[in-house]
């Protein structure tokens, strides 16, 4: 079954070219199926790229999914096309009285910025508080994960001396969890962050359980024991060239602290095309989240979410 998005969203043509079934609003209205309502708070400056990456991962499911995009009202992105934002994005005031089956809060380029110093921190806190009663299951991604852990549980985020940059093996701590159905015991996933948390701080929270860690013991995935909130620091939604674009961009800026992304370029040779080793894990992660933690337990009447 397809994802349901506006006909003119730029991701529409890209996904159709990849043989991903995207349903028009008109066709969806004539199906007697209640779609899952998924809201995406997109905090990334590269709006269209992030939209396409997430929609691609949400598409591989037999469920019909109605996706909406949310932007902050307290901060206007300097890199986003205003017409694109006006056409495809809403603000919190416009949707705060509605309820959603699932929500994704994305990452943001905020390494070394304390949460309280973030321009839209108060608004994001209001949205995260609202998710407790208006969203059945929330997926916090990268900076969104650190923001969520800090806001909901007081887990302090830490600055790394060197950015964790590349594609890393991950150990699954909860192998019988439906979240990892179809996974190998070790899975690969990209990271691009100079932020972390102490694993022991997360493990000390009774309401949380650690689901997966990186090869070096850094938190990769945690969730609440009631499965209403997920915190994911790895980027399984990344395209093949996402890390290379970041690497070459930083090299062109003359940054002296740029590391070659690990386990990414064949033979660590940046002249060679990157080899993707995380695509299947990413598809499974998002599909399993939707199927087992949103669809299987959300009320049929979305208004019953609380």
3D architecture notes:
Strand 6, helix 6 and strand 7 form a beta-alpha-beta unit. The protein is built from ten helices and twelve strands. The radius of gyration is 19 Å and the shape is globular. It has 306 residues and is of the alpha/beta class. The longest helix has 17 residues. It starts with a strand and ends in an 11-residue tail after the last helix. Strands 1, 2, 3, 4, 5, 6, 7, 8, 9, 10, 11 and 12 form a twelve-stranded mixed β-sheet that branches. It has one domain: Class I glutamine amidotransferase (GATase) domain (Rossmann fold, 3-Layer(aba) Sandwich), CATH 3.40.50.
Summarize the structure.
With 306 residues, the protein is an alpha/beta fold.
List keywords for this structure.
306 residues, 24% strand, globular
């Amino acid at each position: 079954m397809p994802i349901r998005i506006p006909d003119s969203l730029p991701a529409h043509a890209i996904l159709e070219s990849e043989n991903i079934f995207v349903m028009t609003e008109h066709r969806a209205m004539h199906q007697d199926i209640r779609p899952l309502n998924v809201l995406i708070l997109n905090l990334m400056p590269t709006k269209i790229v992030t939209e396409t990456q997430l929609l691609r991962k949400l598409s591989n499911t037999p469920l019909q999914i109605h996706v909406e995009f949310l932007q902050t009202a307290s901060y206007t992105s300097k890199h986003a096309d205003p017409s694109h934002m006006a056409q495809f994005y809403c603000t919190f005031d416009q949707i705060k009285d509605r309820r959603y089956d699932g929500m994704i809060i994305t990452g943001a380029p905020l390494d070394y910025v304390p949460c309280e110093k973030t321009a839209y921190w108060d608004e994001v806190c209001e949205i995260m508080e609202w998710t407790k009663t208006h969203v059945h299951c929330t997926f916090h991604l990268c900076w969104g994960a650190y923001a969520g852990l800090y806001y909901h549980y007081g887990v302090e985020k830490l600055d790394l001396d060197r950015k964790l940059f590349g594609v890393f093996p991950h150990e699954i701590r909860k192998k019988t969890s439906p979240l990892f159905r179809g996974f190998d015991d070790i899975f690969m996933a990209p990271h691009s962050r100079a932020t972390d948390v102490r694993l022991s701080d997360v493990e000390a929270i009774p309401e949380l359980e650690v689901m997966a860690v990186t090869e070096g013991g850094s938190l990769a995935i945690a969730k609440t024991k009631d499965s209403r909130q997920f915190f994911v620091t790895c980027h399984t939604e990344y395209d093949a060239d996402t890390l290379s674009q970041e690497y070459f961009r930083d090299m062109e800026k003359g940054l002296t602290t740029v590391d070659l992304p690990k386990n990414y370029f064949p033979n660590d040779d940046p002249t060679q095309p990157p080899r993707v080793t995380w695509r299947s894990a990413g598809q499974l992660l998002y599909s399993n989240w939707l199927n087992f933690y949103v669809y299987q337990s959300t009320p049929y009447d979305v208004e019953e979410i609380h």
